[in-house]
Amino acid sequence: MIEGKEHIVFLGIGGIGMSALARYLNDSTDALVQGYDKTPSPLTDELQKEGIAVTFMDEFSALTQHSSLDSSNTLVIYTPAIPDDLKLYAHFESNHFDCIKRSKALGMITKGTTNISVAGTHGKTTTSSMLAHLLRVAGTEHVALLGGISTDLNSNYFNNSKGAENIITVTEADEYDRSFLQLDPAYAAITSIDPDHLDIYGDGQQLTESFVEFARRVQKLFVHNSLTEQFNSIGYAGDYGIDTGTYRAENVRIERSAYHFDLQTPAGSIRDIQLGIPGRHNVENAVAASALFLESGGRSEIIPNALAGFRGVKRRFEYILRKPIVYIDDYAHHPSELSATIGSVRELYSDRVITGIFQPHLFSRTKDFYKGFAESLSLLDEVILMDIYPAREKPIPGVSSQMIADEITEKDVKVLSKSELLPYLADRKTEVLLTLGAGDIDRFVEPIKALFE
Hints:
Largest sheet: 10 strands, mixed
CATH topology of the largest domain: UDP-N-acetylmuramoyl-L-alanine:D-glutamate ligase
Number of domains: 3
Oligomer: single chain
Strand order of the largest sheet: 8-7-9-6-10-11-12-13-14-15
Number of helices: 15
């Protein structure tokens, strides 16, 4: 369906997963790749610099060479996050264009490759980026389509496989909208199955069953050691974790503000690995990435230097400042992710006051998990809550950030609007600051950095 098309149009091209696909197809096909998104962003700026036309007008006439687009020569790839009333989508559908979801396009692209995927409600982006970094350091030809901006690449896309006969593709197996059921990985890891996307699944059991269905599609599967019971019935190649697992980190410790560990593998031990990014949860992610790397033919001697040099993913435990305050930005938007990030910060800075700014993502997620959010945020010394970022959703009556605030006791808690945030911070003495969330809180990173510099 992709081969032979003269035009490929992306609806929602500014999304992190969509833009990676657009970059790959622009790089590897002769088609004219272009797209629409609602608003400009750093990602759409980068796409335009790479020669991909992007329009922000929801009109067919705004597309490049629109008069040449017809149902025989054009493929439309869309994200499930597009609004129901998007005029461009309605035009393509009513005129019988081939319209496919991003997940189907990803499945088509990876078919016939050695696909290595990372699934899980948390940890997908960091683990897949670590794996791609290991492959790149090893000089292995591969394509990486990532769900975040790798700091090492300054991109969500990497491709050194042009002309290669046996292509390795590194992807994230996204559970949202059951997207991962379009993939057939040769190797995969499942990092976590915490209840999420209950607007799609209804309950945690349905989510788990979808992960099991995904697992059946994998030739060689590794699961986090907390998940072995869920996959015993179908079997898996091995498990991983800290102190327990086929692949495991042992002797985990902090030395000079860096995490060190020994990696135990079926072939032996790799001693004193220093991880280039902080966080105990990232030690587990590093073990998963190393397992996939070794199982797919990677050499063990590559691992220590590669993991020490890995600089992380933007908005995943990203240090913005180390002086005069410690300022860390993180994408955490689920109670488990918040607990992991805040817990790691507490481990690193146990003697300092830790302030967190959290922007809840989605009304439905806030409604489902407001008590869990409150419990996780209570690990902070000071809590600042911003208004809910709605993304694709309409407001739900009675659901607001105040629901979370009301559940947090014995803490300094404030609920602030965007206009109130910077003036409030300017009047506070801050030691360690976290910005947390998956919405547009990232737009405050540079202003907050400037405020404290």
